[in-house]
Amino acid sequence: MKPEHFVVPPEWGWYIVWYFYLGGIAGGAYLLGTLLKLRGGLRDVPVSRLAFFLSFAAMAVCPVLLTLDLGQPGRFWHMLIDRSHGGLAFKYWSPMSVGAWVLLFFGAFCTATFAAAVAQARGSEPKGRLGALLRIAYGRGFLAVGSVLGLFLAGYTGVLLSVSSQPLWSDTWALGGLFLASGLSVAAAALVLLARWRHADLATTGFLREVDGSFITLELMLLVICFASLGRVGIEYARWPWLLLWLLVLGLSVGSLVVRKRVAGGGVVPAATMVLIGGLALRIVVVFAPQVHA
Amino acid sequence: MARTVGFFTDTTVCIGCKACEVACKEWNQLPGHEPLFRDSFDNTGKLDEQNWRHVQFHERGTPAGGVAWNMMSDVCKHCSDAPCMAVCPTNAIVRTEFDTVYIRPDVCNGCRDCIAACPYHVIGFNGSKGLAQKCTFCYDRLQRDLEPACAKVCPTQSIQFGDLAEMRQRATARQAQLQQQGVHEARIYGEREYGGLHALFLLTGAPSEYRLPDEANAVLPRRNNVLGYLGALVTGCLAVLAALVGFRERRKEA
Asked: Are residues B118 and B196 in the same domain?
């Protein structure tokens, strides 16, 4: 039986689409930076730093986008502080509430790691208390916690949509995983392009491309699971004009896998660019389809 | 004085006069929108930030070949297990001492998560104020021991107001009366949906005819919390595993 919805859309638009996209990159890049630092070798160090720079740049835009989307941007802090009694506003059962807190904590972790990476890149780590703090921010435990927060940031946005009464969003539980896999693949693709631009070690770039292939495969599997869980609702939202965007997402994901195998030299730039565009198209179709359809 | 209040809307006696809409706008100082002119007497359209009451007009064919009108004055249901209140990240949406659901305008920051969560298309976004708005159950009137404006003016008693328990009794009695009179399709809506509604409706058709989700479709948004996070957790674990395998493969090749 097809679920019935009698709702109005929340009118979440481009700010939210870009937040979902950049949040995925920020979280994904932080995880990749951590893995390269903790499990990689010396040759991976420059790309690891690059990943933390990318993560910080993407993360820094996120709160701005969220604040601009509010009807009352000056009240952005109401997400964290309950205005009526001055205590904390936190609801573990509300993904938006949890997400606001995770963005705050991830922002702190991301900024600290960024500062540590900058200091290391300059080769001039500050002495004293600041130096000690930066060493902690680049340490195993700190990076591991930051990665968990980053993964949460990349994936909770899908859960946020699912925990609603809107058609499509609430009819599947797979959006969290889908957005996370997509965020990771987009972050890896962006990092591949940055590494190439910075003439990074070829083995590191090759590793990132291999991992990106796995992330894209995971994303494609989740896309299938998502449509399987949607049932007849999926068919409704896979019609014209949304069909074009779904095909674009599918085509670019599969295409990027094909390009890296078939094109001479691995088609590094085209394959990565396809992943970047596909990730954005996914968020556009998921965010807008049920809202415009309504 | 604190008490658990409710509405009982008997759609069989609604005459579509829209006095409830006017009284609501008057009391709550809602300017409203330009009226819609379509193939219907319904020129309000829908519940939103300006329309906290909306009289729906439905035309239905009768067995005799005629056309019967079904009118229903729709309103916020003030759900016992309110999805809007559950998701609101700022705690702007609260339960009052009358057990009704109220949006505090000084706390709401216009994130619109409540609009996404409301299964009854009740809440609207006021762009000029930057706030989400909906029926307050005339909270200010309740505090002064007055009944809500819509119930006060309803000329046919289609909208009744009182203690929720009493409203339930009245709804049950009216349903029994109608069924005795041969209206076998008479049913009460709102006894179980979302933990029980504070706005009960007596309907003579399927809930979907009145743009209300039936019991099977009246599901809480939070049901997707656990599975959604679990799906993301499994995805995250698989992704990290794939990366670790990638490192191992690279080491083997080196």
From this structure: yes
